[in-house]
Design a protein that fits this description.
The complex is a heterodimer. Chain A is an all-alpha fold. Helix content of chain A is about 75%, strand content about 0%. Chain A is globular and about 70 Å long. Chain B is mostly helical. In chain B, α3 runs parallel beside α7. Chain B is globular, with a radius of gyration of 18 Å. Classes of the chains: A mainly alpha, B mainly alpha.
Amino acid sequence: MILLLLLLVPFAAGVASWFARRLASMEAINLAAFGLTAILALGLAAQVLHEGAVSTFGGILYADALSALVVGLTALVALLSGVYAVGYLRHDRSSGVFDDDPHGAPPEAKLRMYYALTPFFVAAMMLVALANNLGVMWVAIEATTLASVFLVTFYGRATSLEAAWKYAIIGGVGLSMALFGTLVTYYSARRLPGADTFSGLNWSMLAAHAGQLDKTGMRLAFILILLGYGTKAGIAPMHTWKPDAYSEAPVPSAAILSSAMLNCALYGLIRNFALADRCLGGGFAPRLLILFGVLSMGLSVPFVLVQTNFRRLLAYHTIDHTGIMVLALGVGGPIGTLGLMLHMTYHTIAKSLLFLCAGNVFQHYRTDVFHDIKEGVIRAMPLTGAIFLMATLAIVGMPPFSLFQSEFLIVNAAFLGGHTLAGVLFVLFGTGVFAGAVLHVGKLVLGPSPAFPAPAPPRPWRNSALVVLGAFLIGIAFWLPAPLLALIRGAAQVVGGQ
Amino acid sequence: MTLPDPQFGEKLITLMAALVLVLQIAMAGHRWLVTNIRIFALQSFLLAAIAATIAWFNHAPHLYLPALLTLALKGVIVPRLLERVVERVGIRQEIEPLINQPLSALLAGGLTLLGYVVAESFQRPEGSPSPESLGRNTLAVAISLFLIGFFMMINRRKAVTQVLGLLSLENGLFLAAISLTYGFPLIVDLGVFFDVLIAVMVLGILVHRIREAFDSMDVSKLDRLRG
């Protein structure tokens, strides 16, 4: 029941917002739906921790600890970026940003689109995490792309169209490869009992019989899946849509794209990897993951170092972290998978927080180019500046923040697993990204400024989202609640198959 | 009623699959946009026929629905939508590929060979007359369709032709699905068709807006976002 509600609540909110008359009711519908979704996600987590994996409708919807973790993170980001969006879009509207669009729709139509598409987007992400059937999961991942394309074109600029075109076409090609991979997985499972029924593509069934899958087929399937869902997650060299889409979408959408949707794409990869690895054994699938992971990390370094635009900086930073998570999945073992799940959790919080901070800076100065901002942000906007700097330090892995812990676990697992070269490169690239990000953001926040900068107007909606996420980030650095840790451990065990 | 002869069915399917491939190569080599869309429609008709044939000769009645959906969606609705987009944005009819037509057709032929090589390494003799014996040639064709569709997307600059490349690539997927496993479980098939329909609408709207904003459909002009 809870599984079904998690899908229906955001979906119904999307429909309701589409038909709502007034802007205030659209905002209220969104906030109510995301609040309810967050409560349901907590309920699901409690149920999974208490009873183990749950499923409904004869196994169509299925949730274990990994699903519950992804659902929880998605709900958290959806709720907080929903709160943020209210302030952000009101500001956009009152400052006349929507009037710049020469061909565009009236502001009301744009806002309606935002408030209707975002819940659909969230509903699709929930379906990704809750679908048991790998085919249905593919349909849901494709649906996340389709629901978010028009969020990228939200501002209707020529550059947003370019970003959306790349996003849709590159994503489309990538996902067709993933569908091919899913098909080959289905083919490899043709000898299992019940292969020709609906449940023939159910992950829980395939995972239980992974040893009997066709090995040649699974090898081909994994390559296709890695390329496909890898494109969606934005691992190098299929990452090119990412900086464009993240910097053109409205900031609350970018926060969802860079954290929750990334998790969903990785989730697809993780589920399929678990099958391939259990079927094939040996180093085939892990080696591929490590290769692509290190490549993504290495490729993001130069772009982070020379970046002039802070939203694109964050996007390249996400590519780096996608690489870290893919590497962690490849390294595997109890420590590697635990590091992966911790990292996914921490990254979701820190990266969405960073985007929200960047949104405040962008709206205040109306630019996202570093050197166009002539004063230290912390003077004009003390709260935003301080949190921006803190989140940057957190995400590059400074202790005491938790990303240090998860990255340390992953490096540790890499060396223990004998992937010395990957471990060394990880540290090397990590240093490069550290230098680039801290330098750029440090200068932006702490730069020289006039003695009395113009004070920023109050932004209650935006800043409350910022403060809550910031408090989360500080909180988990020192104290990880026991149920959350249990959930993360459970998710790691789902990957490892213990 | 006599039992349908599987041998005959297999020959029929192979013949139609070969035609599908010929159409794909023709699409890769042809210069006119509207002709391209019509070739795509014809190809989708043939695919629907293949699905129906497999359903009849191999007793897989659940394939009739995907066949019908392909016919309606990719054979009629999607080509209509694309033609309307072309009409409305009023672009020049020529495709202007990056590589000239004869060479494109030649490359498409080369990709077909590659498709056969990949399919060959994937197929192992297993004896039992299951889907895989039927799929032998069809799988090669499917992989070739996939590769040629990919090539068409890289080779073309107009937004609509890229969409066409993506769709023909998906036709390759559909062919692989029906020949390898007699299609996905029904609910997945329905979901995939739904996604394709939405994707075409989304891309159509994007094409329209790009045309308005850039006064052109040449996607090589979309080059402002760098670094």
